[in-house]
């Protein structure tokens, strides 16, 4: 061997490469399996905040949060006519309404004409629709987008939050949560 | 550079969330209107810069054009105008969205390493450097 012995062990020469590969793998995992970017409401398991929204449509009732504590579980659907996934979930909401689930709507940052057009086109499963023109109630609910659907038990407690559109495969889950909420 | 970054962010958003291509007007009164009192507006601006937009999650609500960011700006401005403390507004939002909504991390049982690790690393660096600068004699064979 040479007269100056190596200071570091021989395997140490591979260390930078190993570190680089580890970093590379980490980046690839992040690229192909991005983290869940949904921001869930921190109010799940807590009481529905109090609000009293004016009617979104003339001749129809608005939405007062008191109705959510009337002993029956409700679905509260946060939606808007300008939201494309809201169109996708409309048939599923229609089915839930047909099954006898009371669905209350919160119409976010919308106009009466657009909302009317949206309901004519996609069906109207709502018992009441409150107009949340400035988005304050949406923020009070901890909702970070549309559509979102809250399962509220008969005492006005939020038991479940569904983020994004309700697809046919979610119906069973929601009906299950409603049944649980009834007990 | 900033423009390039912005366009990259926009491209990323366009690729990951096509559902966000939604058009509508924000109807919140103070989404795009400043408060008349400049002192209060400054206070509101400081808070808005440290709150995360929930839709364009890399941006603060002061920077974001997302409709929900408009609603959040209006909420912040109206509450500041009504005399509420900025930290109380932040707490109100954290209560609803979790710590994620705030860019100012609180010191909690989960976040303490965030504050401790830099101090710890500085300490190690200091010790190592001290040995290198003063400990020549101890190193020589």
Automatic annotation (TrEMBL), chain A:
GO CC terms of this entry: outer membrane-bounded periplasmic space
Keyword Cytoplasm set for record: no
GO molecular function: disulfide oxidoreductase activity
Swiss-Prot/TrEMBL GO biological process terms: cytochrome complex assembly
Keyword Transmembrane: yes
UniProt-listed PROSITE patterns: THIOREDOXIN_1 (PS00194), THIOREDOXIN_2 (PS51352)
Record protein name field: Alkyl hydroperoxide reductase
TrEMBL record, chain B:
Keyword Ion transport attached: no
Domain of life: Bacteria
Gene3D superfamilies registered for this protein in UniProt: Cytochrome C biogenesis protein
Protein name, entry field: Cytochrome c-type biogenesis protein
GO biological process: cytochrome complex assembly
Functional note: Possible subunit of a heme lyase.
Similarity comment text for this entry: Belongs to the CcmH/CycL/Ccl2/NrfF family.
TM regions (residue ranges): 110-129
Cleaved signal peptide residues: 1-21
Alphabetized GO MF terms: metal ion binding
Chain ranges of the CcmH/CycL/Ccl2/NrfF N-terminal domain: 26-135
GO CC annotations on file: plasma membrane
UniProt keyword annotations, A-Z: Cytochrome c-type biogenesis, Heme, Iron, Membrane, Metal-binding, Signal, Transmembrane, Transmembrane helix
